[in-house]
Write a structure and sequence with these properties.
Four Helix Bundle (Hemerythrin (Met), subunit A); 5 helices
Length: about 130
Amino acid sequence: MWPAAQSVDEAVPARAKDFLEQAVKSLQAPAGAVILAASSVDAMLKEKGLKEGSLYKRIDTAAQQHLITEEMAAWAHEVRLGANDQRHADDDAPLPSTEDAQQAIEFVQALAQFLFVLPSRVARARGK
């Protein structure tokens, strides 16, 4: 039995939200879920204005600009690398497990909270 569908807050930009919702719905296909999770990270960083270069560079730039912490950047790189293994069908890379996919999704959910949901809630609470 798979977990119940999780809703994604409306404060998350549409493209990132769509990728994240699809990742959650794809847990029974972990390789696909991991790729979708990484796509959501990419879409979030682009929404924050980081559009140049590779996802690797955008993650590092996000940390350098203090959009995310160094620890969050390290986790984002783990998600990115997990997706790369699947996108490139690397012979030496094992297929991800459901637990691997769930961990990637949990990071993306945390990133969405940090970058979009919490700032939106603060702005609403402060009447902005």
